[in-house]
Amino acid sequence: MAIEYLSEFAGTYLEDSYFLGAVAEGRDLRLKFLFALTTGHADYAPPKAGQAHCYREGSILLEQPTIVDWQPGRPAIIRDPD
Questions:
Q1: pTM higher than 0.85 for the full model?
Q2: Running DSSP on this structure, what letter comes out for residue 63?
Q3: CA–CA gap between residue 16 and residue 52 (Å, rounded)
Q4: How many CB atoms lie within 10 A of CB 81?
């Protein structure tokens, strides 16, 4: 079975991308990422020494989502074992 992606994510390798956080901007919600780019992306460059992919910061803007359920408390810090 083929996996289909949204065209907005063409040129990204989501499995090796990182979620950096969320920011409320008025009634909008911005999700920040460190995207792993593939050679098909316009901003692709060879990976830096010691990195498996070319990474670029980016975000996804959710305009006026109907429900945002914030959970109070400290966020869990997850460290990559590699």
A1: no
A2: -
A3: 9
A4: 4
